[in-house]
UniProtKB/TrEMBL annotation:
GO-annotated molecular function: endopeptidase activity
TM ranges: 40-60, 81-107, 119-136, 157-179, 191-207, 214-233, 253-274
Keywords recorded for this protein, A-Z: Membrane, Transmembrane, Transmembrane helix
Protein name: CAAX prenyl protease 2/Lysostaphin resistance protein A-like domain-containing protein
Coiled coil location: none
Residue intervals of the CAAX prenyl protease 2/Lysostaphin resistance protein A-like domain: 122-223
Keyword Plastid attributed: no
GO biological process, one term: CAAX-box protein maturation
Pfam families with a match to the protein in the record: Rce1-like
């Protein structure tokens, strides 16, 4: 029984990694039936959440029992769902501040705001797909169950570190599995991507910690994806705005990474530090 936490870590990580691989496989099968891109992605999202959510919720009962925590206090319960807005708005505020700074410094120049008819339907579809395929299953498994198991055994900072490394291993292993069976790799594993994954994992975990709700991490994750895809990245489908950069790639690096991800880490650390000082006051 003392080693049950190791089994839970292994089971949780296998669940998220195996589900990612199987969801990519389902997308390939859907493509063979002639389905277009969005139906393929929706099927992948349904497979991903359909596998991860029930299995992780089942495993979470063992985590709660191991840690002596009452299930009614779990971080994924609906009573904390309002924190979804907290995380979502935090990412939007950081991105908006990033655009204000970049424009004031002359790094980017906004040329056009597109009418909602150009992007609104595509945004709604992508929100649904991203929620099912990425935000919900990844947060429930990684920033939720796996972190809670690690926190039972290690200090908070070590648990954050190990959770982030497990997060990085998910696309690494899933990509290798895709290559082994002849599928196109889902991610290009290079140094910038690895740095992004590591920092993003830390940011999402910290957002969950200061809100004490997994829904905040889900909201932040989803907002980051949509801001990156529909605002920051240009020439990658429908966009909300069009802008020019003084240096190619500067907007994506500064706004998506520096402001949202690194900014989210800094804001979270400041809030956690302030809460700690307040608790220590007599």
């Amino acid at each position: 029984m003392k080693r049950i936490w190791i089994l839970l870590i292994f089971a949780g990580w296998i669940t998220i990694t195996g589900s990612l691989f199987l969801s990519s496989l389902s997308g390939t099968v859907a493509e063979q039936f002639g389905l277009s891109r969005n139906p393929q992605l929706l099927i992948q999202g349904l497979v991903m959440s359909g596998l991860v959510v029930p299995i992780i919720l089942y495993l979470y009962r063992h985590v709660d029992r191991m840690a002596g925590m009452k299930p009614k206090k779990s971080v994924y319960l609906w009573k904390g769902a309002y924190h979804f807005i907290t995380g979502f708005l935090l990412a939007i505020i950081l991105a908006s501040l990033g655009f204000i700074i970049a424009i004031s410094q002359g790094w980017i120049v906004i040329e056009q705001w597109y009418h909602p008819d150009h992007w609104f339907v595509a945004l709604l579809i992508n929100v649904l797909i991203a929620f099912l395929y990425e935000a919900l299953p990844e947060e429930l498994a990684l920033r939720g169950m796996l972190y809670d198991v690690l926190r039972y055994r290690f200090s908070a900072w070590l648990a954050i570190l190990f959770q982030t490394l497990l997060f990085l291993c998910v696309p690494l292993v899933a990509t290798q599995l895709q290559v082994l069976v002849g599928l196109a790799p889902g991610n290009i594993m290079n140094i910038p991507y690895i740095i992004l994954i590591l920092c993003f994992g830390i940011c999402l975990q910290l957002v969950r910690l200061w809100t004490r709700s997994l829904w905040a991490a889900i909201g932040f994750h989803l907002a980051y994806l949509e801001i990156t895809r529909f605002v920051v990245m240009q020439h990658n489908g429908p966009s909300i705005i069009a802008y020019n950069e003084t240096v190619p790639g500067l907007g994506e690096m500064f706004i998506s990474f520096s402001m949202i991800v690194i900014g989210g880490i800094i804001v979270s650390l400041l809030i956690l530090g302030a809460k700690r000082v307040i608790r220590k006051r007599p």
